[in-house]
């Protein structure tokens, strides 16, 4: 009996969840939920939160993410001498961006129109900032997890959960996305990340050997 890789199964499950949510979004069944959630988030508005949300907006934008990825690559290479792993890391980020653009153009959901705090363009679903945060944090966790202590893993896990969550909430707070845009981004980003993990595991199994040693890619 063939045994399916858990990462592939999770990728398929998350993709199914995304498709189901997308069907609800297109049919308008999520409108009431979005309206209530937006009102709840907006009630917490304050100058401090607005400044923080704008900061997250800048970091999560295309230019900010490119800078963040480049800095991360430099640190990981200088500190851990990772090479092949970093190629995979970059591939995850590029794949996330391309997938997000394709999904946005396919579903073509308009953005909220009620007084956005920052100027944005393009379609709304799924959130590019939230999806990029999932891809970045998830791929970074995959590279660092085997190399950290128990305490370090705890800190890494906390950061990789809080960052996408904060990014998602900030998109709703700024009025540039509906809550379901963010949820959809988490599902799509998680599905893509798990698929990328499955791909690298296949690469490990099929990698050629040199002098009896197999080329290594992150497990």
UniProtKB/TrEMBL annotation:
Domain Phosphatidic acid phosphatase type 2/haloperoxidase: 89-197
Protein name in the entry: Phosphatase PAP2 family protein
InterPro entries membership: PAP2/HPO (IPR000326), PAP2/HPO_sf (IPR036938)
Keyword Membrane: yes
UniProtKB keywords: Membrane, Transmembrane, Transmembrane helix
CDD domains tied to this protein: PAP2_like_2
Keyword set includes Isomerase: no
Entry-linked Pfam families: PAP2
Transmembrane segments: 56-79, 86-103, 123-143, 155-176, 182-199
